[in-house]
Amino acid sequence: MADPRPAAAPRGATAADAATRPGSNTWGSKLVRWLFIAVSLSFLAALLIAPVATVFATALAHGLEPYLASFADQDTLAAIRLTLMTAAVVVPVNTLFGLAAAWAIAKFEFRGKSVLITLIDLPLAISPVISGMVFVLLFGLHGWFGVWLEQHDISIIFALPGILLATMFVTFPYVARELIPLMQQLGNDEEEAAITLGAGGWMTFFRVTLPRIRWGLLYGVILSNARAMGEFGAVSVVSGHIRGVTITMPLHIEILYNEYNFVGAFAVASLLTLLAGLTLVVKNLVERARAAQGAPSEGA
Amino acid sequence: MSFRQPSVLPGFGLTFGFTSFFLGAMVLLPLAALVLAAGSMHWSEFLAVVLSRRALGSYQLSFGASALAAAINALFGFMLAWTLTRYEFPGRKLIDALVDLPFALPTAVSGIALATVFARHGWIGRYLEPLGIKVAYTSLGVTLALTLISMPFAVRTLQPALLEVQRDLEDAAETLGANRFYAFRRIILPTVLPALLTGFTLAFARAVGEYGSVIFIAGNLPMQTEITPLLIVIHLEQFDYRGAAALGVVMLLMSFAVLLTINLLQAWSRRRQLRAAR
Fold first, then answer.
1. pLDDT class for A6, splitting at 50, 70, 90?
2. Residue B19: domain span
3. CB contact under 8 A, A44 and B80
4. CB contact burial A114-147 (16+ within 10 A = b; e otherwise)
5. pLDDT digits 0-9 by tens, B23-53
6. B14 and B87 both lie in a single domain
7. What is the CATH number of the domain that holds B76?
8. Which of B1, B104, B174 lies closest to A280 in CB terms?
9. Looking at the structure, do residues B62 and B84 belong to the same domain, yes or no?
10. Is B13 in the A-facing interface, judged by CB distances under 8 Å?
């Protein structure tokens, strides 16, 4: 199945040699070059840079004090706490799943492997609204287990467990998708040598495999974390929107925005924007570290 | 052939078991609930929901705006990918890194930020308003949001393809007297066409299901600016689970059709590469 994420930026661009090519200094080619650069940069500026700048400009529109004061709000703090808690539960589970799935899929040949890969990709290909809805259909009041859950006084939908499940559904593929191609490229030789020389399974994993996949693992975890903290659609469907209880940061942004509390909404948004920026920085550091390590680069 | 080929490595039982259990509980069971909820409807009931005027209006907007957004990304994404792979200019690496931002940015943040920039008094909206162009709360706004969130998929698919274009072929064509446009049409376009189509389809697939960024900039009026995912949410909020599931199944089938298209495109592109290599 196709990888439903954007591929990694290609390394080793050939941009530098453009200037030295014959015919590249004619009037026409210069015009084309500046036209291309101008159009594509304007496209990015209008669609991406202006909105991101607006986030900070609106959050700080009345100065630093109202910006900082908006974080003292009880509901905002509750939303931040819930988002942190969600990530703290979901990301370790995703990491564990990613490692297990990558070990089974990359290290062994077995029938039905492509079915597993397809199932791992599936959550990335479907609408976040559907990702949330499936849990409502299972655990909601009129869902499969709805009556049983109510009799036993367990609430999943419109409560924390539903938020955790929906977030996990949307984010679990990221670590696995990062590790599977990486471990397939690295091959089994070193692990087989370690086992043949008498190392145990866990020792082989921690001493041989883990050091070689650590950058890919780190990136998968960071990406999974960014998506877990930022998920909106799936969580919105299962949350029930109980203020201070089942409101995560992205849902809180929606509430504040609809109440015309723009400073508050964009203050929370600025935190998530910083998180996205940090994710990109780590991504680039990981790619650089991998290139320096001489390991096969991701997505190549 | 047995189920699994022999290997000296340990841990297959544990990791395979955990992976299968997790996928079964987290993916298969929920999706089964979706399909069965829709399947429990009578045919006429199902059709009444998925072919209602409101539903048809939402498909028209969701699929139309997504196709338009993917086309915009194919065009501007191509220019951006071209600029990033072929030209050297200050800040190129930073711009290259920024392309991934829509992917990392939470959709609610993109939504309120776009709505603010393109609102009547927003940074860009104020210049469009006198021209009679309304973006916020119109289908144009929906298209814009979908363009933003699906952009990385088009650009990142095109970049490696543009790097693969054989520069000596281009040089040869120009040496032999072909003008730039002719060389572009006969050498560059055929090489990157599969990537262009794949990028279009990936961007479309990402855009069709999008919810968070759209609902802030769309007016969310039925038949006009209401996307299908929003209609699903409205059904759910009215506790009409089966109606929501029916629409969900329609969207799911569309996603499968798109994924199938992507796989066929990639198979076609591999065959073309093999033929070219011979």
1. low
2. 1-40
3. yes
4. eebbebbbbbbbbbbbbbbbbbbbbbbeebbebe
5. 999 999 999 999 999 989 999 999 999 999 9
6. no
7. 1.10.3720.10
8. B104
9. yes
10. no
In one-letter notation, the amino acid at residue B74 is A
Distance CA B5, CA B20 (A): 18
The tokens describing A262, both together, are: 């723009």
Classified as helix, coil or strand, B4 is strand
Query: Does B236 contact A136 at a Cβ distance shorter than 8 Å?
Result: yes
Number of domains in chain B: 2
Is the CB of B83 inside 8 Å of chain A's CB atoms?
A: yes
Phi then psi dihedrals of residue B4, to 5 deg: -135, 140
If asked whether residues B273 and B228 sit together in one domain, one would say: yes
Same domain for B81 and B159, yes or no, is yes
Task: Specify whether B150 is located in the same domain as B64.
Answer: yes
Q: Report yes or no: A188 at the B interface, CB cutoff 8 Å.
A: yes
Does the beta-carbon distance from A58 to B151 stay under 8 Å? no
ipTM of the modeled complex = 0.90
Determine the Cα–Cα distance for residues B253 and B214; give it in Å rounded to an integer: 22
A212 membership: H or E segment, kind and range = helix A210-230
Q: What one-character DSSP code corresponds to residue B225?
A: S
3-class secondary structure for chain B? CCCECCCCCCCHHHHHHHHHHHHHHHHHHHHHHHHHHHHCCCHHHHHHHHCCHHHHHHHHHHHHHHHHHHHHHHHHHHHHHHHHHHCCCCCHHHHHHHCCHHHHCCHHHHHHHHHHHCCCCCCCHHHHHHHCCCCCCCHHHHHHHHHHHHHHHHHHHHHHHHHHCCHHHHHHHHHCCCCHHHHHHHHHHHHHHHHHHHHHHHHHHHHHCCCHHHHHHCCCCCCCCCCHHHHHHHHHHCCCHHHHHHHHHHHHHHHHHHHHHHHHHHHHHHHHHHHHHC
Say yes or no: B7 and B34 in one domain. yes
Q: Are residues B18 and B118 in the same domain?
A: no
Residues B161 and B200 in one domain: yes
Tens-digit pLDDT profile for residues B123-167: 999 999 899 898 888 999 999 999 999 999 999 999 998 888 877
B82: left (phi over 0), alpha (psi -120 to 50) or beta: alpha
